[in-house]
């Protein structure tokens, strides 16, 4: 049996799929069904999906307060005021900072940037950070990817004689900060049509509005789409609407004319930008940019993106590569310790959560490991580490469990917490750790149903492998870029015959490699790679040795080896045919 439940995503009616097949010139059923699941039900919507362009972007002045923000920036430019661009230390924050710092500098502004230190300043606007901004002589602070909930900090900025513009994409609280302008499409009074922009995309909108007010072409700022693409992919925002447009255009810029800093970073990461996609950003470029803020000074990431010469960019990219290697070593050590602690905790009895505490864990990597605990044990996980006189932690959850609500029920044990349904941060006193572990488990237990803790693979469509031809692949490629709300389609093939050798591969032999063809129809042999599926070696071997057919869940990808490129199946799960 498979360790996961396979679930075909449901539609109100399959008739819509049949109609779409006809409208799109007999498009193969698996592709038509995958499109319908994404809300594509007609030739017109399919054209919008496949041929989206920057012509479909919205007017930045539709965002409430945009006119106020632009007026204040133009005033600062006219008076040669010192402007501080105040960012955040993650990918979205550092790309936002690089974008606006470069753009204002091109306009001749007296502009400096400030990125808070994760350990010294904490997240977002802080009194200490604003003091540092004031020390530069700033009269205007532009907060990027943060600030929409910083009510107290906005008042503090005024006491220092500085005005504030907030440019954010997070959900506001009941009260907005007292700022010159608060740009956030998630404001309840904001008519902007698309609500899911990342912080860097909102920053681009601000720059475009300034550009238009100066009588210049806003499209000139598409030079920054490589930065917006990296932020959009890394921040895991919904890849629909404007985000899909921005990411597609930004990936094209990364392929053809990336800024020198990103080009050198890609070389260090062994990422071929000519073949860049969402996966290359999320697993190649993003972690290296994040490493600066996780382990050191995130200003290193900004200065890399602002580099003007290949020599400077190469030196800064190598610096981030070294930090990323250090981060990965910490990841491995922390993960090994956490997995052992989790096994011991779960062996003690039934638990609905995994809450682990080690005083010496590095705050820069506990969020990553918490996510891996969720993947491994399929239940909410919290990693806690000491920070001065308090304990700080990163929480991650699963579908069906709102971790923010669960933390609310433990609020009397916490000094502070914040986040959303699937991820959050917490701060508590060391003496409350044990009580919190039990209370949080009770809170989640009250929301759990038997099916919630069972891993599920959501499948777009069944598929006969004989359907996979050049046209199928050409259409599937146009589904990209993949990400939140537009995942890679997962297909389900049955009655497969295992062909040729079956083996586990990789340094720890944890990956499974074999080949299959459709048992009922013959046809071409397709290579299969299953990362982390080495545990199913016996199952696939049994299929081959006893002539039992196999069922497979998979996505489809190109694999290039020794100069040859061919399609392969990326296995998500495998099991013997039950009949």
Task: Give an account of the 3D structure.
The chain is of the alpha/beta class and 579 residues long. It folds into three domains: 5-51 and 456-576, OB fold (Dihydrolipoamide Acetyltransferase, E2P) (Beta Barrel); 60-257, inorganic pyrophosphatase (n-terminal core) (Alpha-Beta Complex); 350-445, Roll (Diaminopimelate Epimerase, Chain A, domain 1). The chain has 19 helices and 18 strands. Strands 3-2-4-5-6 form a five-stranded parallel sheet, with helices on both faces. Strand 2, helix 5 (91-106) and strand 3 (110-114) form a beta-alpha-beta unit. It is globular and about 80 Å long.
- What's the gyration radius in Å? 25 Å
Mean pLDDT: 92
- Seen as an oligomer or otherwise, the chain set is single chain
DSSP helical segment count:
19
* Helix content class: 40-55%
Model regions low in confidence, pLDDT < 50 over at least 5 residues: none
Q: What is the fold named in CATH at topology level of the largest domain?
A: inorganic pyrophosphatase (n-terminal core)
The biggest sheet, with number of strands, parallel, antiparallel or mixed sense and barrel status, is: 5 strands, parallel
Main traits of this protein?
5-stranded mixed sheet; 5-stranded parallel sheet; alpha/beta; 20% strand; inorganic pyrophosphatase (n-terminal core); 19 helices; OB fold (Dihydrolipoamide Acetyltransferase, E2P)
Task: Provide a compact summary of the structure.
The protein has 579 residues and is α/β, with parallel strands linked by helices.
């Amino acid at each position: 049996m498979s360790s996961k439940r396979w679930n075909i995503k449901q539609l109100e009616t399959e008739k819509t799929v049949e109609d779409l097949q006809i409208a799109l010139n007999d498009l193969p059923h698996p592709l038509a069904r995958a499109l319908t699941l994404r809300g594509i039900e007609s030739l017109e919507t399919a054209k919008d999906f496949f041929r989206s362009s920057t012509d479909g972007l919205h007017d930045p002045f539709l965002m409430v307060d945009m006119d106020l923000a632009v007026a204040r920036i133009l005033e600062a430019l006219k008076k040669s005021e010192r402007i501080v661009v105040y960012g955040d230390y993650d990918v979205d924050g550092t790309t936002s900072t690089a974008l606006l710092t470069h753009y204002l500098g091109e306009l001749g502004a007296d502009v400096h940037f400030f990125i808070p230190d994760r350990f010294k300043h904490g997240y977002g606007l802080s009194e200490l950070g604003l003091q540092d901004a004031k020390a530069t002589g700033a009269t205007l602070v532009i907060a990027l990817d943060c600030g929409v909930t910083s009510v107290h900090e906005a008042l503090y900025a005024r006491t220092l004689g500085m005005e504030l513009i907030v440019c954010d994409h997070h959900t506001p609280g009941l009260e907005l900060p007292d700022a010159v302008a608060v740009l956030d499409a998630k404001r309840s009074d904001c008519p902007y049509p698309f609500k899911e922009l990342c912080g860097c995309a909102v920053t681009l909108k601000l720059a475009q509005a300034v550009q238009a007010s100066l009588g210049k072409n806003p499209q000139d700022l598409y030079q920054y789409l490589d930065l917006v693409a990296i932020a959009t992919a890394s921040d895991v925002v919904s890849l629909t609407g404007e985000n899909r447009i921005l990411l597609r255009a930004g990936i094209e810029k990364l392929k053809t004319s990336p800024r020198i800093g990103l080009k050198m970073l890609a070389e260090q990461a062994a990422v071929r930008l000519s073949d860049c996609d969402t996966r290359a950003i999320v697993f190649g470029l993003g972690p290296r940019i994040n490493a600066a803020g996780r382990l050191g000074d995130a200003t290193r990431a900004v200065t890399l993106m602002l580099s003007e010469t290949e020599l400077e960019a190469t030196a800064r990219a190598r610096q981030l590569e070294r930090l990323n290697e250090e981060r990965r070593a910490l990841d491995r050590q922390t993960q090994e310790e956490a997995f052992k602690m989790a096994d011991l905790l779960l062996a003690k009895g039934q638990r609905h959560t995994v809450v682990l505490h080690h005083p010496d864990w590095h705050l820069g990597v506990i969020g990553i490991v918490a996510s891996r605990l969720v993947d491994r044990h399929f239940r909410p996980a919290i990693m806690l580490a000491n920070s001065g006189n308090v304990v700080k932690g990163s929480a991650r959850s699963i579908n069906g469990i709102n971790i923010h609500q669960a933390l609310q029920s433990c609020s009397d044990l916490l000094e502070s917490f914040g986040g959303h349904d699937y991820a959050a941060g917490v701060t508590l006193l060391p003496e409350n750790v044990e009580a919190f572990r039990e209370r949080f488990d009770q809170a989640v237990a009250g929301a759990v149903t038997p099916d919630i803790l069972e891993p599920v693979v959501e499948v777009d469509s069944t598929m006969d492998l004989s359907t996979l031809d050049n046209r199928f692949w050409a259409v599937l490629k146009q589904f990209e870029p993949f990400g939140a709300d537009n995942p890679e389609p997962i297909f389900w093939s049955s009655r497969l015959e295992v062909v040729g050798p079956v083996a586990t591969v990789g340094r720890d032999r944890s990956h499974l490699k074999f080949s299959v063809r459709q048992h009922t129809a013959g046809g071409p042999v397709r290579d299969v790679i299953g990362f982390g599926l080495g545990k199913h070696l016996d199952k696939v071997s049994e299929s081959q040795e006893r002539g039992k057919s196999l069922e497979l869940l998979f996505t489809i990808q190109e694999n290039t080896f020794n100069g040859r490129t061919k399609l392969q199946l990326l296995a998500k799960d495998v099991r013997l045919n039950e009949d």
